[in-house]
Design goal:
rod-shaped, 307 residues, alpha/beta, eight-stranded mixed sheet, 3 domains, two-stranded antiparallel ribbon, D-Maltodextrin-Binding Protein, domain 2, homodimer, Arc Repressor Mutant, subunit A, 12 strands, DNA-binding
Chain lengths: 307, 307
Amino acid sequence: MDRRIELRHLRYFLALTEELHFGRAAHRLHIAQPALSQQIRQLETIVGVELFRRTSRSVRLTQAGAAFQPRARSLLDTLAADLDEAGRVGRGEAGRLDVAFITSATTIVGEHLREFSRRRPEVQVKLHDGFTTDVLTALERGTADVGIVRDAEQRDDIDLSLLASERFVAVVPTDHPAAEGDRVEARALAADPLILFPRSAGPKAFDTNTQPLRNAGIDVQVTQECSHWHTIVTFVAAGLGVTIAPYSVTAPLPPGARRLELDGPPTVSQIFMATRRGDDRPLVQAFTAASTAGGPARPLAPSRRPV
Amino acid sequence: MDRRIELRHLRYFLALTEELHFGRAAHRLHIAQPALSQQIRQLETIVGVELFRRTSRSVRLTQAGAAFQPRARSLLDTLAADLDEAGRVGRGEAGRLDVAFITSATTIVGEHLREFSRRRPEVQVKLHDGFTTDVLTALERGTADVGIVRDAEQRDDIDLSLLASERFVAVVPTDHPAAEGDRVEARALAADPLILFPRSAGPKAFDTNTQPLRNAGIDVQVTQECSHWHTIVTFVAAGLGVTIAPYSVTAPLPPGARRLELDGPPTVSQIFMATRRGDDRPLVQAFTAASTAGGPARPLAPSRRPV
DNA sequence: TCGATCCATAGGAGCAGCTTATTGATGGGC
DNA sequence: GCCCATCAATAAGCTGCTCCTATGGATCGA
């Protein structure tokens, strides 16, 4: 007789605490009265104490029963909420998403995030900024669920989906000869020292970034290597050289630097969302899908499950 | 197929989250592997999401499963604690006890309470002080579980058990002729105005309290009626008259009043614990029993129930 | 004293959950 | 490259628990 407690016991117990009448409580539970008597008795042997004091004329809660009632009630409520929550997580409506992104994409990530949060207000997004290598490492190791990188190369284990494109622009010191106009031809920068991130930080990104110069027949030589765009444009403003940068990292510019549109065949920088290949988790799917237009993603009336 | 969730599902789910292997988890649960597969599948249809991603080589938690695990764990732990608590309440080892007592018994109630709290540290005692009528009313109405009264008369619906006895003493102003000694004969107070509570506040208590005077052949006439002993002895100290009081309410006395032992046949005031007749709740029994000597009331190793 | 009410008990039936046996898929070893 | 080991899913039958109906027994009002 070492039966274990089941939720049935709690459900029956609570019905009886409310009705204080075996017949009515049983009716409400859609069972016959003897079944309820049995189960309540069983619960009492499990707990080891009398929960109801009954005569043939009345049913009253004992102190132990009175103490147990709110706890049982709360337990069932909690469980219902937990099931609901698990369901939402499973459908990608709630949960936590780790997003790793390169610092130079902060503006675009922010825009995307605002849209995603509107669609999935219950999802907690954890952000991690870093260099391209950090982002990819986080993705590989599972530290991040989604990575956001710029001009990445294709890989077997990673899916890329385009998040945004933006043109490259030139950034020159305000005392540069070309700084008086709004536009510049790449070849006009041939003699200037070039400030840029090291190629090792992202070969494909580096090559894309310098494409306008190579299109103009310039032999690309980086005079000053910096890791952060913020540092690069600051150095430009200080008159140490010029750079070619994706538009979004040049707004705003520090005083002393000036942005110029590039003449010639347009080259774009592409920002990708990167996910592990085969990662079909709903939240990941929802995040990458948030850039595409679409209706509200969550059902209007979340179904409440009986417990 | 609208089966309801049961604790069995949670127990099986948790075992599987820990083992991440159907065979081992089933073994630990003392069931066969297919039974576990069935129940997990059933749980998943109830929740509406996949909780484990399984291949024939591996079993992994999904995000929904990972989100549900700590909640399920906590639910079972909570339930175990709740059952434990209900058991303790049922055995009178925990819970709440409402004790109504007369103000003049404060000292004795305090002593009794200290002993009771030592024995039942988990019981929360709620105290209500008032006059004898308040105490009895609270007991009748169920507002109080135990009442503590002084020199009460027997009643059909209330059980009395003696808590303490104490002698009566006289209290006189320090300028009273008898105040020079330590003792006094009751008849020496015959001419003094008597300060006491009204007889209507408790006829039996009043009669007991005035017994020493009546033994001395004095016709008892209360000159000044007060409800609280504190007020009575203050009036005595102010020289308005004398009184006869149970010892405990005369310690300490305000300046200006002096306590004298009474000569003659001793009369005692009895303090009773009053309970509703037939109230066999363990806490009530334990409280009334706390005055009698006895070992520790709670088992040394409370049994932990499996859930 | 009789009847009504209501909880407990008794005995039987149906089904949920368990069992063993087997299938099917995956991955490692020779 | 084939075979075997591993492991979860499926199939089919059995067991035991929960529920049922019928009845007993206690209490209260008329």
